[in-house]
Amino acid sequence: VKVTPIQDAPIRTARLSGVTPSKAAPAADTSIVQGGSLRTWSYRSPSVEQVQLVLSTEGLPLDADIELWHGPENAPCKMRVYVENGQLRPFSAVIETPRGPNTVAVRNIGQIEFPLVANLVTDI
């Protein structure tokens, strides 16, 4: 079988109806949260529909409270996270944040010797 390359063939691109172009690169915000500290991220825009939260440590225990505050009058949704080794098993969650304003809060309830790294990605 002999294959001959096509030299001057035009390159065509197809456009599918109903397909929207992908969004811009996700925005990430990484913070170190010391033991006993609180870090919050607030989103007023209703276009932020979900966020991904990743918590990790450098091989130390990870002990945190996570809260989603939706609007000024709603009770927060709460989650408690404990991981023995945050480097081997980082915690990851996708949190729905419909119809802003929303605030995501991470409180490191571990001792001051056990900082954690919180990475929040929007528009995933």
Shape designation: elongated
Q: Structural class from helices and strands?
A: mainly beta
Strand content: over 45%
**Rg (C-alpha, Å):** 21 Å
Query: What strand line-up does the widest sheet have?
Result: 1-8-3-6
The total of beta strands comes to 8
Query: What fraction, in percent, of the residue positions are helical?
Result: under 10%
Number of helical stretches of at least 4 residues? 0
Q: Could you give the distance between the termini?
A: 47 Å
Mean pLDDT: 81
Secondary-structure element string: EEEEEEEE
Unreliable stretches (pLDDT < 50, length at least 5) are: 1-25
Largest sheet: 4 strands, antiparallel
Walk me through the structure.
The chain has 124 residues and is mostly beta strands. Helices cover 0% and strands 45% of the residues. It is built from no helices and eight strands. The strands form two sheets. It has a four-stranded antiparallel β-sheet with strand order 1-8-3-6, with no helix packed on it. The radius of gyration is 21 Å and the shape is elongated. The model is unreliable at 1-25 (pLDDT under 50).
Features:
mainly beta; single chain; 8 strands; 0% helix; 124 residues; 4-stranded antiparallel sheet; disordered N terminus; elongated
Could you give a short description of this structure?
This protein has strands spanning 27-33, 38-43, 50-56, 62-70, 77-83, 91-96, 102-108, 116-122.
